[in-house]
Amino acid sequence: MKGSAMLAVQACTLALAVLLATPGVAQERALSQDGQNFIMQRMERHNIQAFDRQAHRPMSHSRVCSTAAEEGMASCHAHVVHDETGRPFATTGPSGYSPADLRSAYSITGNGQSSTIIAIVDANGYPNAESDLATYRAQFGLPACTTANGCFKKVNQNGVQGNYPRTNTGWSQETALDLDMASAMCPNCSILLVEANNASLANLGAAVNRAAAMGAHVISNSYGGGEAGTQNTEQLYNYAGIAVTASSGDGGFGVEFPASSPHVTAVGGTSLKRAAGTTRGFTETAWSGAGSGCSTVYAKPTWQKDTGCAKRTVADVSAVADPNTGVAVFGPSGRGNRSAWLVFGGTSVSAPLIAGIYGVNDTAVNHGGDPYRHTANLHDVTSGTNGQCTVSYLCTAVAGFDGPTGLGTPNGAAAFGF
To answer: How many C-beta atoms lie closer than 10 Å to residue 380's C-beta?
Structure first.
């Protein structure tokens, strides 16, 4: 190779390395062979085709929102499965876990009631939120949830139906995921979508406060940022009697806010696989991307008794989050204004899923403390890791409480309320 060509290759290689190491740039992670097979087998079983004829086999996944590079900003925790070209693997029908799959895995039999309001808080606007949600619910036989029948309501962070913030595809995909997971677990619950002006923790916190003021019984948050400087924002996640869920993160061992707030239920992540011949029919291990660890800012709540963290320990509970065992979502495909069926993972799956289960229970809550009183109603996750740490249970699933999966995953709805 000539010298000038060699220099060009070296320059491109260096630029790519810098790009992948730069905060704010989504980094792809390869799907496992099992993950690829999981999606392709479901497509074959239900005669599902790729959305675009030129689409290739699913090969990787990456986060849909850029990382929060600045103090006081948040990033969503959704990961979308890609094909070999790097585009979201969009299909004509659902190829991830369905509501029936998820309800079976977590033994959820109740459907909730319309008087229970689950609030979804996300940043930026999502013009097709209601229509995309309608497609998801119709596909799986869930009751219609529309503005017209009073089930669905979308507002900006000031509580106004209109004057919504500008659209962001990544955050719209996150919102689609949140709406679908809450619907899957609590199909009869009403849904309030509150769109924050942008991804600042201050505006997201204001949107949480708006949701509480508008009567939400449960508030789901699938995002996080650094803990530094969040003390004034933390009060916006503290509501007696309202369940507030927060995803633990998608970068492995490490802590983010608002999951580190002592007033929320911090939700970690697992890999959920079918297990033929077992009573449950599923098995779970800790997902390698789930966040966990010790807060450096917030005090340990009274219900946490572990000794590895002097302050708040993340997480409290968990649910499926691994994109290799991802969930079906209908949302923005990233191809103009078109929506399609996608496969998602991340603790952005588990946080609204747990919020939906709180909605099914629909009883008074004591911040994130209720699961600690109902450990018999949780599946203990005892294997898997999300990184390296000094105190092993903070990054490795063990019998009882641990960082990546908390106390475990739902076994019915009883752990999520009095």
So the answer is: 17
Q: Which residues contact residue 21 at a Cβ distance below 8 angstroms, ignoring those fewer than 6 apart?
A: none
Q: How far apart are CA 118 and CA 111, in angstroms?
A: 13
**340, 330 Cβ separation under 8 angstroms:** yes
Q: What is the DSSP letter of 380?
A: P
| Strands 338-345 and 79-83, bridge-based pairing | antiparallel
Q: Would you put residue 223 in left (φ > 0), alpha (ψ -120 to 50) or beta?
A: beta
Beta carbons within 8 Å of 14's beta carbon, 6+ residues apart: none
Token couple for 363: 């009883």
Contacts with 368 (C-beta within 8 Å, 6 or more apart), sequence order: 262, 263, 264, 265, 266, 301, 303, 316
Q: Which of these, 17, 42, 15, 124, lies nearest to 76 by C-alpha position?
A: 124
Residue 248, SS3? coil
Count the neighbouring beta carbons within 10 Å of the beta carbon of residue 302: 11
What is the per-residue pLDDT for 413? 98
- Asked whether the beta carbons of 63 and 250 are under 8 A apart, the reply is yes
Name 196's bridge partners: 123
Instruction: Give tens-digit pLDDT for 13-29.
Output: 333 333 333 333 345 67
pLDDT in tens, 358-368: 999 988 899 99
**Tokens representing residue 182 in the block:** 């809450």
Bond before 258 cis per omega within 30 degrees:
yes
H helix runs in 162-308, sequence order: 169-185, 201-213, 231-234
Ramachandran area for residue 40 (φ above 0: left; ψ -120 to 50: alpha; else beta): alpha
